[in-house]
Amino acid sequence: MPTAIRRKFRDEASFEEVIAQHPDFPRLVARKIDVQRRGVHYTQRTLNAVDPAIHQLYTWEGVHYPHSLLLRDGGTILVIPQPEERDPYVVDFVDGKFVLADGGDIVETVEIWPKPRYYDKTTSSGRLMREIVSARPQRLDIFVTSFCHFFHVDDQGCKFCSLPYHHRQLRAENHLPTRLQADDVKECIIEALKEPGRFANIHITGGSVVKGTEVLDMEVDYYIALLQAIGEAFATPRFPSQLLGTAFNERQLTRLREQTGVGSFTADIEVLNERLFDWICPGKAQWVGYQEWKRRLIRAVDIFGRGNIGTGIVGGVETASPHGFASEYDALRSTLDEAESLAQHGVTTVHTVWAPQKGSQFHHLKAPSLDYFIRLARGLQDLREKYALSVDFDDFRRCGNHPDSDLARLQ
Questions:
Q1: Are the C-beta atoms of residues 260 and 222 closer than 8 Å to each other?
Q2: Position 396 confidence tier, pLDDT thresholds 50, 70, 90
Q3: Which DSSP state fits 115?
Q4: Does 83 sit behind a cis peptide bond, omega within 30 degrees of 0 on the bond before it?
Q5: Count of other CB atoms within 10 angstroms of residue 9
Q6: What domains appear along the chain, each with residue ranges and CATH number?
Q7: E strands within 83-164?
Q8: What does the alpha-carbon distance between residue 373 and residue 277 come to, in Å, rounded to a whole number?
Q9: pLDDT tens digits for 161-186?
Q10: Is residue 188 a contact partner of residue 127, using CB atoms and an 8 Å limit?
Q11: CB 398: neighbour CB atoms within 10 A?
């Protein structure tokens, strides 16, 4: 890949120029951010070298791709393949090693996620376990349903979100179920736990379901049934876990805490600005609202305990045109101010790196600079230190998708 090919990001400062402005920021975390915002392109040599017997793969548009990558420090890079015209990093296979290249220069060695042993086994109902419970290097992921009311009923899905598009593709190519059965999930968890030391947390999430006697009751009911089934695999009342759901009210949160063994709760607010929340997340704005979302997060601290409540934002989406911040400085200041207002009440904020994806309404836009994401990651971690907040349930080991929580292990 010749150095001259610098399309989408050609007018930006280089990685080395940016990192020189942040000498105390971990180089590998900065590299992770840059790869996430630009994406990767897998060479044919790489695709030929992957081994389905040992590597964790998925099928996308008829091609078997690595599920994701690991850096030398054990950091995870969750990234979606991008076409070459978007100027992604390149994952190549050179001299028997997988490498990361930029502009023709090899900049890092990487590894492909190892496949868990349970992946090729089946449940009693005949389902492949990898279709029920997926895995990150040290976390089990349970996507209970791909249905989201905001997308499929109201046509008011979050504008940055491409998950419904990707889930449709994955279901079509991998025969994934649209909704999981509790017994299938329990069998997978029991089997996965036979790999001692491999998994540190269980993550449960799904699309928003607004139906019920109260709004969101049906979603809560489903999570409770699933969590109770998972709890049967453990000898203790509580187990290391994170539920990522919609912002539930006090009664619903209390039910989750009292009737299940879930350890932590997260409700992603997506963007920390009420005006932009209303524009970018119209479904969440209509059914819950920005101020009520924040109030429910704060109330959750009293129910689950300090250090067990978080929210996530799609870092950088606050700069989306035409209504987002035109200035990265203003965007960063506004976001960190709002994050501090939550931190003061015991709610920690983590961010993912916004990379506009095919299938989202924002697919044609461009993410902000590497410099912006470095400052955002440092700012969020500084708030955790200032307010003595833990992010253990969403750290580099249990999740790996948040550059700011990668910094927490260095403190």
A1: no
A2: confident
A3: P
A4: no
A5: 20
A6: 15-112 (no CATH), 117-410 (3.20.20.70)
A7: 89-94, 97-102, 105-112, 134-136, 139-143
A8: 20
A9: 987 766 666 656 656 667 899 999 99
A10: no
A11: 23
What percent of the chain has a predicted confidence (pLDDT) above 70? 94
- For 403, the token pair is 């550059």
Kindly state the percentage of the chain with pLDDT values over 90: 82
Q: In terms of pTM, does the model score above 0.85?
A: yes
Q: What is the pLDDT of residues 201-230, one digit of tens each?
A: 999 999 999 999 999 999 999 999 999 999
Amino acid found at 208: S
Asked if 260 and 224 count as a contact pair (C-beta separation under 8 A), the reply is yes
Residue 217 main-chain phi, psi, to 5 deg: -60, -40
Q: Say which residue the tokens 């009737």 belong to.
A: 259
In degrees to the nearest 10, what's the CA dihedral of 80, 85, 88, 91? 80
Question: In whole angstroms, what is the distance from residue 383 CA to residue 381 CA?
Answer: 5
List the structure tokens of 396: 């580099």
Cβ distance 275 to 283 under 8 Å? no
Which of 56-60, 177-181, 261-265 has the lowest average pLDDT?
177-181
